[in-house]
Amino acid sequence: MRYLTAGESHGKQLTTIVEGIPALMPLTSENINDSLLRRQKGHGRGKRMQIEKDLVDIAGGVRHGYTLGSPIAMVIRNDDFAHWEDIMGEDPIENNQDIRRKVTRPRPGHADLNGALKYGHRDMRNILERSSARETAARVAAGAVAKTMLSHLGIEIVGYVKEIAGIKAKEIETLSIKEKMEISEASPVRCLDENAGQEMMDAIDIAKKDGDSIGGVCEVYIEGMPAGIGSYVHYDRKLDGRIAGAVQSINAFKGVEFGIGFEAARKNGSEVHDEIAWDKEHGYYRKTNRLGGFEGGMSTGMPIVVKGVMKPIPTLYKPLQSVDIETKEVFNASIERSDSCAVPAAAVVMEHVVAFEVAKGILEQFPHDQFPKLQDAMKAYREELRCF
Ligand code: EPS
């Protein structure tokens, strides 16, 4: 199971192809549009989200509400392309000097300069159009297919915001996953703690007024995962490693933690590891979940809890110094529009990229071409674990 995305931020469309989903799995546009709509929301988003209405057009791999087993092709149109057609069109143009909105001034913290050096582009629009976080809409489409698969296998997943600009949400241990879904959905910053959420919104408003941007921490929580998905036998089969890579690959993400994460460095082993217990109804379980659902690169059967750190978006109204690549003159980088905080949207993106890795791990363990057979295999495996 794998996916590819294509498309530029102000180009015609974003395209996603997901390959390896078994046949006969229920899938509709609605499953994908729900996720796309969630990603567009959030306090702190800029003007672009008022232009776009992300809706998927399923262009292959699904018929009459079921997957065919062939690649699933999905298209999301960029409504903003109407304003960018002459700049982003694919046909040759007579005179390169005619290109409007050429970018020669790299923004600190963005892909602009490194991308230009690597690919030899003198117009850095050729870099920023693809490195833009617009691409995460296409990744969410792939993750929505994975999430649909997981939900039919009894695995639920939710992403929410833990922290923005140093304001931390209180830990509310008693919430069920359904409550986490409902509360985060109702919060404009996807926060489970209402008071902290209000403070986060205030901080976003201040950053916006100051022409600055702020980052934060997202958490993804997964329930219903059986033990033993992933493997210890090779570095590239460790499921926590794959999830970490997927999270780190989200635009502007700088770090990943499972369970108590970096805190483990400051504690004794007896305070870090989770004691093993057994009962007839559930089989083996852990008395605590400090390791966030993973031991030895494999799921433990406890909820998976993973955090990702997002830096403040580097596109700033407040100028930072940089150098023009044509004239070499020093200038203060500034822009026309940006999001002052995209952490709430990033929580949705993180939920979806994690869902994809989990679904992929499951399909590797139970490689069925027909979805009902995968469902049967999962059911039998769960029973096997319970009776072990
Ligand atoms: C982004 C810059 C902004 C964001 C964009 C990511 O877009 P624009 O340059 O058109 O104002 O709105 O995010 C999206 C378009 C999206 O769909 O999330 C960037 O530079 O990364």
CATH level-two architecture: 4-Layer Sandwich
How far is it from the N-terminal to the C-terminal residue, by CA? 29 Å
Percentage of β-strand residues: 15-25%
Q: State the share of residues found in helices, binned by percent.
A: 25-40%
Q: Tell me which ligands are bound.
A: ligand EPS
Kindly provide the name of the CATH class: Alpha Beta
Note down, in words, how this protein is organized.
The longest helix has 23 residues. This protein has one domain: Chorismate synthase, AroC fold, CATH 3.60.150.10. Helix content is 34%, strand content 20%. The protein has 12 helices and 17 strands. The protein is of the alpha+beta class. The strands form 6 sheets. The chain has a 5-stranded antiparallel beta sheet. It has a 4-stranded antiparallel beta sheet with strand order 1-2-6-3, with helices on one face. A two-stranded antiparallel sheet has the order 4-5. The protein is globular. The chain starts with a strand and ends with a helix. Strand 16 and strand 17 form a beta hairpin.
What's this entry about, in short?
This protein has 388 residues and is α+β, with helices and mostly antiparallel strands.
Helix-strand blueprint:
Elements: E1 2-6, E2 13-19, H1 29-40, H2 48-51, E3 56-60, E4 62-63, E5 66-67, E6 72-77, H3 85-88, H4 112-119, H5 125-131, H6 136-151, E7 156-164, E8 167-168, H7 177-186, H8 194-209, E9 216-223, H9 239-248, E10 253-258, H10 269-272, E11 276-279, E12 283-286, E13 294-295, E14 298-299, E15 304-310, E16 320-323, E17 330-333, H11 343-365, H12 371-387
Antiparallel strand pairs: 1-2, 2-6, 3-6, 4-5, 7-8, 7-9, 9-15, 10-15, 11-12, 13-14, 16-17
